[in-house]
Amino acid sequence: MSATLRLAQHHHEIVRRHLFPGDGKEAIALLLCGRREGEDRQILTVREVAVVPYDECSVRTPDRVVWSTDILDRLMAKIWKLGMSIVKIHSHPDKYDRFSSTDDESDSALSTSFDGLFMEGRLHGSAIMLPDGFISGRELTGGVIGRDFASVMVAGDNIHLYRHRSSENFEEDDLRNQQAFGAGTVALLRSLRVAVIGNSGTGSIVIEQLGRLGVGEFVLVDPDIIEAKNLNRILNANSEDAKRKTPKVLVAKRMLDSLGRGQRVLPLQINLDSVEAVHRVAECDVIFGCVDTAEGRNLANRIGAYYVIPYIDVGVRLIADGQGGVESVAGAVNYYKPGGSTLLERGAITSEQVRAEEMRRTDPARFREMRRQRYIQGIEEDRPAVISVNAFFAALAVNEFLARIHGFRNVENSEFATLRGDLCEFALHREPEEGSRGHLLKEVGMGDCDPLIGRPSLSGPQ
Q1: Cα dist. 105→108, 109, 322, 323, 421 in Å?
Q2: In sequence order, what DSSP letters do the residues of 220-260 get, joined into one string?
Q3: Which domains does the chain have, with CATH numbers?
Q4: Which of 42, 74, 261, 350 has minimal CB crowding within 10 Å?
Q5: Global pTM?
């Protein structure tokens, strides 16, 4: 499979402003990228944008730009130190959505130059941007022009997935003109690989919806097995699964396989805090977090930043009054765009919770004593009747995803960083992004590194 390119919204905005200054002439910038070099996916993740000054271009016309490579000399020390890849991107003000013969000549020379500078055969690329922000690109590797990028994703308040018009596996060339919630949704979802972390109460319902909507590939992460006490809230699980201690990920896979739609499913019966899980999730296009631990939610948030992946987090909380009733039946869906405010900044989790849960590795006995997660806080209840509550908030999470890829709301998606619901009051309210940037801003696009996602526990050979 050919490579994909991912940009956070703020990087896309920098590029677009520079490439289209309003004079109708081509301009150029360099995308400095991290990478995820998977077995079946090569991903370039934008870390930084270096604009080529207009006065360092000897030619700028509506259909041509000639630029000085002096900027590469200024950037080379950083590129070498951080092991980054480079994607050259230039504008086509005339809206021509293909590489021109002039582009071919330029890219051929640039690929040869890159191959001389980076002897290990590092993957680089070249891309074009149209006035509406559409991007397509291709690989530059081994001194030659390679394959077209499989896709370019811009992860922001809206999720834009740009496919090259000659891309395989699409019946029609331009997804932008296909009907939302019709052929457009079906074709787009079929092209996506989605990670679902946590396959229990809310996770099993999210998987059911995404599977029937037609998502093409799944990575399922959950270390746990089916038990009799949770049969009342995990879809597609049965008493035989409880007797056989069937892994939750295999129950979900069985359901997806039964749909007969040829969907690829990778079930991982492991914790997210492992190299394999992080790598496999990093190769997905979207992450759904359906776990009730602060550490797991924080890890998913970090993967989203390092690999430029939108992250949708769903949580449910019931609080008992101690007299047989409940004080609160509530939940929230948080949407994280890479570089934006994180779950920590929003108060959905705290650093103290994360540190306490990290005791699992160093002092499991103390961890179990300190923290026992339960659906209903304030009582001992192993079999809570919460499937209807889980289904409500799981549906909100999936609809949040559809709103991000289709933009069907009458209000801007930036107003929906968090969607909270209280079923006692039967009220839903939205909260906008808290601040323009989150604490993981500098980590956006770092890709594979040591330690992995900045976690000392994930350091060493990858």
Answers
A1: 5, 6, 74, 77, 56
A2: EE---B--GGGTTTSTT--HHHHHHT-BHHHHHHHHHHHTT
A3: 4-177 (3.40.140.10), 186-458 (3.40.50.720)
A4: 74
A5: 0.92
